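Appendix C: a fully annotated inverse folding record. The material below is reproduced so that readers can follow the format used throughout the book. The structure is listed first as C-alpha cells, followed by the designed sequence.
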C-alpha cells in the first residue's frame, strides 16, 4: 500500500504480539480495532489498484472460488462415510488377525505396530532371513530403509518367493493409514464444522499452470472414482433439493492441451480423428502395430506420452514404469533413454 501511496499500514499488530485479550486496556483495544479497519480499507484500495487490466473472466472465477467456500450449498452424508470408515477398520482388524499368532503378538494392535514401524518391520524381515531393501535418502544422502509402497525394493518383497513374506507386505500395506481413511475423516470433520454443509476449498491459480489446487488438506479435483467402494467419498457429496451433482473428467486433457499449445499438429489431428494416441506412440517405440489388445505395450506408450511431454527423463520413466500399479514394466535405463529420444524426435514442437 505504501508503494502505491494508498496509505500506511500501522504497527499496532507488532505491539500486540504475545498479548491476550485480557492484556488490552480500552485505549489499546480501540487502537487495535482502528488498525483492523484501516487494514481492510487498504486491502480494498490495493485490490482496485492491482485489478486494473485483470481479465474480467478471471475475476468472476476468483469470485466463484470464494463463494464455493464462503457460502457452501453442498451437503455431506455423514452416515455413509461413517459406515465406510467402520468397514475399513474392520478390514484392517481381519488382516491383522491373520498374523497375530504367527508373530506371537497379544492382539491386533501389537501386530499393527510391528508392521507399521519401518524399524520393527526391518527387524521382522531379518528374523525371517530376508535382506532388508535399502535406498539413498534424497534429503540426507544416507542409506535408509526402502520400505515405502512405491520403493522398488519393497515392491520386490511383495513378489517374494516365500508366500509368508508376501503376506507380511500385503498386511503392512493394508493396515497403514490409507489415503481413503484420511479423506473420509477429513470430510466428516469438515461437515461437523459447518453443520453438515460441505465448503469446497480450492486455491485459485494454485498450480503454476493456472489450475486450482487443493486446500484444507483435501482436493476435490482428485477424488477416487474407479474403485466401487472408494467412490463412497463422491457419493457422500449431496446436492440441495432441486439440484444434482454431476461428476465429469476431461479425456486425456494433459496430452491434448500440450499438443495444441505446442503446435504439434500431427498429434492434434490424431486426437481430432479419434485415434488412440497412446497406441500410436507405442507402435513407434516397439516398431510394430500396438492396439488396446496389447495392454502392457500400450501402458508404456501412455506413460511416455503423459510424462515425457512434461519433462520426465529416462531414470524417472524407468522408475514410474517399474512401480506402477496394477501394471508394472521393468526396463533397463538405456531402453528408457531410447524411448525418450524417440519421443523428442517425433514430437519436435513439444520440446
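Designed amino acids, in order:
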Amino acid at each position: 500500500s505504501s508503494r502505491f501511496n494508498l496509505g500506511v499500514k500501522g504497527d499496532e499488530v507488532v505491539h500486540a504480539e504475545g498479548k491476550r485479550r485480557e492484556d488490552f486496556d480500552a485505549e489499546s483495544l480501540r487502537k487495535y480495532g482502528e488498525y483492523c479497519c484501516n487494514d481492510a480499507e487498504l486491502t480494498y484500495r490495493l485490490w482496485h489498484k492491482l485489478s486494473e487490466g485483470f481479465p474480467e473472466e478471471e475475476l468472476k472465477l476468483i469470485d466463484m472460488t470464494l463463494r464455493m467456500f464462503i457460502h457452501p450449498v453442498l451437503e455431506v452424508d455423514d452416515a455413509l462415510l461413517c459406515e465406510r470408515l467402520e468397514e475399513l477398520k474392520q478390514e484392517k482388524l481381519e488382516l491383522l488377525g491373520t498374523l497375530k499368532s504367527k508373530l506371537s503378538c497379544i492382539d491386533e494392535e501389537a501386530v499393527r505396530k510391528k508392521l507399521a514401524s519401518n524399524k520393527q518391520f526391518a527387524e521382522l524381515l531379518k528374523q525371517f532371513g530376508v535382506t532388508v531393501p535399502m535406498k539413498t535418502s534424497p534429503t540426507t544422502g544416507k542409506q535408509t530403509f526402502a520400505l515405502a509402497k512405491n520403493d522398488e525394493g519393497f515392491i520386490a518383497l511383495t513378489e517374494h518367493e516365500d508366500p509368508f513374506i508376501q503376506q507380511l507386505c500385503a498386511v503392512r500395506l493394508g493396515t497403514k493409514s490409507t489415503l481413503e481413511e484420511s479423506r473420509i475423516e477429513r470430510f466428516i470433520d469438515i461437515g461437523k464444522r459447518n453443520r453438515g454443509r460441505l465448503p469446497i476449498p480450492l486455491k485459485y491459480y494454485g498450480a503454476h499452470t493456472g489450475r486450482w489446487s487443493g486446500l484444507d488438506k483435501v482436493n476435490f479435483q482428485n477424488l477416487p472414482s474407479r474403485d466401487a467402494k472408494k467412490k463412497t467419498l463422491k457419493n457422500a457429496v449431496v446436492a440441495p433439493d432441486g439440484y444434482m451433482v454431476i461428476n465429469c473428467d476431461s479425456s486425456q486433457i494433459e496430452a491434448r492441451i500440450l499438443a495444441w499449445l505446442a503446435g504439434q499438429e500431427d498429434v492434434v489431428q490424431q486426437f481430432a480423428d479419434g485415434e488412440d494416441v497412446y497406441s500410436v506412440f507405442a507402435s513407434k517405440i516397439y516398431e510394430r502395430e500396438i492396439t488396446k489388445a496389447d495392454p502392457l505395450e500400450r501402458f508404456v506408450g501412455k506413460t511416455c506420452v503423459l510424462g515425457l511431454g512434461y519433462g520426465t527423463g529416462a531414470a524417472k520413466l524407468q522408475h514410474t514404469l517399474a512401480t506402477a500399479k496394477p501394471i508394472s514394466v521393468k526396463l533397463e535405463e538405456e531402453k528408457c533413454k531410447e524411448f525418450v529420444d524417440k519421443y523428442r524426435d517425433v514430437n519436435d514442437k513439444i520440446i
